[in-house]
Design a protein that fits this description.
It is a single chain. With about 475 residues, the chain is of the alpha/beta class. Among the domains are: about 1-35; about 160-280 and about 440-485, no CATH class; about 305-375 and about 390-410, no CATH class. Helices cover about 45% and strands about 10% of the residues. The chain contains 15 helices and seven strands. The strands form two sheets. Strands 5-4-3-6-7 form a five-stranded mixed beta sheet, sandwiched between helices. A two-stranded antiparallel sheet has the order 1-2. α3 packs across α15. It is elongated. The N and C termini lie far apart (about 70 Å).
């Protein structure tokens, strides 16, 4: 509609009669309504940050909001708590080397102390790294001719020595550690080797080492996938976008407290989840952030309440209503009650506690639904495909109502966590990878990264040093948690 009407045009409409004026005002009101809705959407978008939405902290920029924690005060001072494991540098009883600094003359009278017996020593220890140089080992295979039959015999080389000139497992393990775990680009990895060891490997050698590691740990990743699918009670799921060959793909993760599995697919939803093969056959409870595709698999779900608390915080800031703050408080209270019950070695809440929390939850949802009625299609406006777009508060309330058992799953079963933070931690490194390197150029590089990172993450969760785990892989004996059923 043309809003730039002159006085003459407005008078002309007036002279056309009452119906023309009513039609003009209706058009103006519709335009105002549309612009107000658009303005509201834009204001909501600007108001979102990492504290009240799913946006990452890196998107906050320099206007990062002050943190507002929903946790109750615990009364403890800030900093390390008594009994926590520390990393203070402490002297050792048996140092590797001892340097004795002699007292040769008296500082007062300057007489010689060469023949004076030592009364005691004051000791100070310096922790340092000796100069490291690459060691070259030449393997010589003896060749002998049998004096009895004339057969030419050659001794076997070690299984890992396959080329005339090659790198050993230690160099390859460190190369993979820097490139795949510390996320250093190939050139910087090569520069690091040159600075530390006075030797610069080629980028092709680094890529080959990563591919070899991926091949060695691939069976471990398959065993992890099987364990997650069939043996774990609770499995966390998440996905994040990445750029591969200039196109958007998705890194899918499935993880537990002890295991991590990654894979990449060009799709995010059901097609990808079917291809991965974990969710269609999952025996445990799936913990996720409520992405609709997850609900197509099984009936055991747990929703991330950290997401819900952030959304409630957004509503509290933008659309304040009494039920919003009360629901945030209720979810945190339930979590605190569950945590306290766990500390007391309880396996479930009492029937009274469950019924009280359910009653409060239902009342707040009902109150919220009344305050945020369902939007119906506008009369006289052409219908668009799909459901009518609802307000943010209504969408969240629909989740609370429809998926009540999944929202409160942590209350009913103590094995189910309150949030999906574990999956978000496991998937965070992909965002860091993209910040450093931008994208993956080939699907092979993407698969290599997924295989190695899943193996490394699993090793770390089970207390295994990352470099040790990589050394084992290059020694053709990759680490596999003992509890995994290999049958």
């Amino acid at each position: 509609m043309n809003l730039d009407l002159s006085n003459e045009e407005i008078r002309a409409v007036y002279q056309q009669g009452e119906d023309a004026v009513v039609a003009l005002i209706q058009q103006l009101l519709k335009t105002i309504k549309d612009l107000s809705a658009r303005s509201q959407v834009l204001e909501d978008r600007l108001a979102k940050n990492s504290g009240n939405s799913s946006k990452p902290p890196s998107s906050d920029g320099y206007q990062k909001p002050a943190p507002k924690s929903l946790r109750k005060r615990h009364g403890r001072k800030s900093g390390g708590q008594p009994g926590h494991p520390g990393n203070t540098l402490k002297a050792v009883e048996s140092p590797d080397r001892i340097e004795v600094h002699q007292a040769k003359e008296c500082k007062h009278c300057h007489r010689s102390l060469e023949n004076v017996a030592v009364k005691t020593h004051e000791c100070r220890q310096v922790f340092d790294i000796p100069k490291v140089e690459i060691e070259v080992t030449e393997h010589q295979s003896e060749i002998k001719v049998c004096p009895y039959c004339g057969e030419k015999n050659k001794a076997d080389f070690p299984e890992t020595v396959t080329q005339p000139v090659q790198y050993g497992p230690e160099i390859k393990a460190q190369a993979v550690y820097l490139n795949q775990y510390q996320l250093m680009p190939l050139e910087r990895t090569a520069e690091t080797f040159e600075a530390l060891y006075r030797h610069r490997p080629s980028e092709a050698s680094l890529i080959t080492a990563c591919q070899e590691a991926a091949n060695q740990v691939k069976p471990v990743n398959e065993a992890i996938k099987t364990q997650i699918t069939t043996q774990e009670d609770v499995v966390h799921f998440d996905e994040t976008g990445l750029r591969l060959g200039g196109k958007t793909h998705w890194l899918h993760s499935a993880s537990t407290e002890r295991l991590t599995y990654y894979t990449v697919h060009r799709k995010r939803g059901q097609q990808a989840m079917d291809a991965v093969g974990i969710l269609p056959n999952l025996m445990g409870c799936a913990i996720h952030d409520g992405w609709r595709s997850y609900f197509k698999y099984g009936d055991r779900h747990g929703l991330c309440n950290a997401h819900h608390l952030r959304k409630l915080k957004f509503l509290e800031e933008r659309y304040p209503q009494p039920w919003v703050t009360q629901m945030s408080t209720l979810l945190v209270d339930i979590k605190d009650t569950v945590d306290k019950a766990k500390e007391n070695q309880s396996t479930c809440l009492t029937e009274k506690q469950l019924s009280d929390f359910e009653r409060q939850y239902d009342l707040l949802v009902e109150e919220g639904l009344k305050a945020n009625p369902l939007r119906e299609p506008e009369e006289g406006v052409p219908r668009k495909r799909g459901r009518v777009k609802q307000a943010p508060a209504r969408n969240l309330l629909e989740t609370f109502k429809t998926h009540k058992n999944f929202v409160l799953a942590f209350m009913y079963a103590f094995k189910v966590p309150f949030d999906n933070n574990l999956a978000e931690r496991d998937i965070r490194m992909m965002k860091l990878k993209q910040k450093i390197s931008g994208c993956f150029r080939t699907s092979q590089g993407c698969d290599t990264f997924s295989l190695i990172r899943g193996y490394i993450s699993t090793a770390r969760k089970n207390g295994v040093n990352v470099l040790d785990a990589l050394r084992q892989a290059f020694d053709k004996n990759p680490y596999l948690p003992a509890f995994i059923n290999q049958g």
